[in-house]
Amino acid sequence: MNASRVIETFGSWGGYTLEEAVSLMNLHVVKKEHFKKNKTPDIEKLGYIAGVVSLNDEIEIIVKFHEEMLQLTKEAVSQQIHIIPDDDDDDFGI
After folding, report:
1. 78 falls within a domain
2. pLDDT tens per residue across span 38-67
3. In the 8-state DSSP scheme, what is residue 84?
4. Nearest alpha carbon to residue 46 among 58, 34, 54
5. What is the DSSP annotation of 45-81?
6. Is the entire prediction scored with pTM above 0.90?
7. Are 28 and 84 in contact (CB under 8 A)?
8. Using CA atoms, how far apart are residues 26 and 49, in angstroms rounded to an integer?
9. Is residue 55 part of a domain?
10. Per-residue model confidence as pLDDT tens digits over 2-43
11. Whole-number Å distance between alpha carbons of 8 and 51
12. For residue 75, what is the domain's CATH number?
């Protein structure tokens, strides 16, 4: 039987690579709703990237805040989270 099958995919597949996700480990983050340029957020609003998980062939990161933990795709991170790089001292006027 030579039936050809076409598999359609929906959504974006531009997620994290394992190397990219692991390189973000332990970086501090703040939700975009709490981020204000040149203003240090309250300590309770800061979180950090605590882990990496592979689920359904997609790499996601685990973000830990004071009272919650989020599991986010790359797309969700870009929409909801501001990542504070190690050399990003200017963002909070530090």
Report:
1. yes
2. 888 889 999 999 999 998 889 999 999 999
3. E
4. 34
5. GEEEEEEEEEETTEEEEEEE-SS-EEEE-HHHHHHHE
6. no
7. yes
8. 5
9. yes
10. 555 554 444 455 799 999 999 999 999 999 999 888 888 889
11. 30
12. 2.40.10
